[in-house]
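Summary for the steering committee. One of the milestones for this cycle was to obtain a three-dimensional model of the protein with calcium ion bound, which we needed before selecting residues for the alanine scan. The sequence and ligand used are listed below.
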Amino acid sequence: MRILVVEDDDGIAEPLAEGLAREGFEVSRVATGAAALGEPVPDVVLLDLGLPDLDGYAVCQQLRSRSSVPILVLTARGAEIDRVVGLELGADDYIVKPFGFRELVARVRAVLRRANAEMSALADVAGPEQVQVLGALTVDRRARRVLVDGTEVTLSPKEFDLLALLAEDPGAVVTRQTILEEVWDPHWYGPTKTVDVHVASLRRKLGHPEWIETVRRVGLRLGDTAAATHP
Ligand code: CA
């Protein structure tokens, strides 16, 4: 695990770098924002907000614009506004100086764990082998095929995308906004009636209208798909 420590205060940076090395991290240390942006992307970044050259927020934003590396912001400023701004700029967590070393290591490990979990969740969804069986419903993302009780159901591309999205987290409500962004277009501002038309068609084709539940004013949910089509 390569960790990049961006901190201009030697009194903080030196013991921190030594401690992290003892914890088994491969540590790179820089003292300016420009140097931080010139480094190869590490596995995790510890970023001081009070840097001599660039604003730490700007560094955070630029790091985030080029990679999804976990960023843990270090700051002497503990005001709530800083926290909000830091997180909005894409920092993963925030620690206020002075901090205990053990706490810092725990927070670093936590952001790394979260990042890994997100990566593997993405890999699962995008995985070439993914065939998801949910009771009587089978969603094969690799082949873009859907089976109900073993029989293939022919769906339009949008219907498939919509069902696959709902199946990513069965039982969870997916908001209409998310559906529009994921299945249609990120900049969709058209009538949301389009979704209803596709949902109606999808329900009809699946033969189990109750599987796709409408949660009023919120969105849709893939409900219990255990029911098979036996007469
Ligand atoms: Ca500083």
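Key point for the committee: The longest strand covers residues 2-6.
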